[in-house]
Amino acid sequence: MAHDIALLPGDGIGVEVVDAATPLLERAAETHDFEVETTRYEWGSDRFLDEGSLFPDDAMDRLADHDAILHGAMGDPRVPDYVTSIEGPIAIRQAFDLYVNYRPVRLHDAGNTPLKGYGRNDVDIAWFRENSEGEYVDIGGRLDRGGGSELAIQTSVYTEKGVERVVRAAFEAALDREGYLTNVTKSNALRYGPVFWDEVVEDVAESYPSVTLEHLLVDAASMDFVLRPDEFDVVVGPNLFGDILTDLTAAVTGGLGLAPSANVNPDGDAPGLYEPVHGSAPDIAGEGVANPIAAVLSGALMFEDLGEESAADALRDAVAAHLADDGAPHTPDLGGDGTTANVVADLRSRL
Ligand code: NAD
Ligand code: MN
């Protein structure tokens, strides 16, 4: 059995971490008796600067032919960030209607985090970020009226279908886990979108009487993710809140260098897009010190969705053993002085 993977490294450390993770994924495949075929697409900011677009016109058709896409990140100081985001990964999520952005958050080792006193796996959160609409629909406008009275409008869109499907996916996950779902909202101050979102959550909840549902306002939630992260199980929230709060939950549990994500459409056969939560990190790009673990764990999520659970577990076990070993080389974001290559070699020895 061979899985056909598109590699879309992108820019900056996106390239470094995808190049680091790929041989480890191939190794895990080899030891679990399956093959991965990879096709590397050199699309990103350099292409934008040379040819005027991040992707060629037929990019989505070409990506559609693969079983899954492993992405690094896009973003380059020479290109506006809204171009690399909206015409980059957001365009892929939209093209394939990848409406669930699944972001697992796990505490490996509290030593390098604010959570001193917590043990491994004391924090284990499954984030379901709505990934197809909300604040990221790219609808709005500007009126350049001059005279200091410019005006800009950015619209959010919540549809019944769009909210219902991601909320249902989160309830389903809660059934498989601890049976506890937190809905992150802002329906006290935003009476149209978020109030509607909450109503849909309540409707879906009727089909899941065994799941305990908690509603948290996003401002209070951001505090609770720092003060009591161990009490969460599954969390669901709109696109923008999910984007912001998953950087926070990543930071609390060890940093962006460890946080993976899966963009998927559970209903169809579109390829999923697997990528670290982090961006292209221009501040450390080219130095060879990016932490590749978020990319490796994104590869584990990809293997899991491709039905290769034991290879996914092998990758996660190697990462857990690496993180628990104080003598292993860790990258500077974790307080070590190891390089990306050192971490790859260490993980390779554990596979
Ligand atoms: P970032 O995630 O790139 O970096 C934030 C901080 O975390 C930086 O200090 C960086 O050095 C550190 N960091 C991130 N990943 C790391 C890793 N693997 N190892 C060690 N340290 C790591 O966020 P930013 O600086 O806000 O954005 C930089 C660029 O990335 C921007 O152009 C932004 O638009 C883009 N971005 C892209 C994506 C994506 O492609 N999906 C996501 C987020 C940001
Ligand atoms: Mn983000």
UniProtKB/TrEMBL annotation:
One of its GO terms (molecular function) is NAD binding. SMART domains: Iso_dh (SM01329). Signal peptide: none annotated. Keywords: Manganese, Metal-binding, NAD, Oxidoreductase. The keyword Metal-binding applies. Transmembrane segments: none annotated. The keyword Metal-binding applies. Its cofactor is Mn(2+); Mg(2+). Residues 4-347 form the Isopropylmalate dehydrogenase-like domain. PANTHER family: D-MALATE DEHYDROGENASE [DECARBOXYLATING]. This is Isocitrate/isopropylmalate dehydrogenase family protein. It comes from Halorarum halophilum.
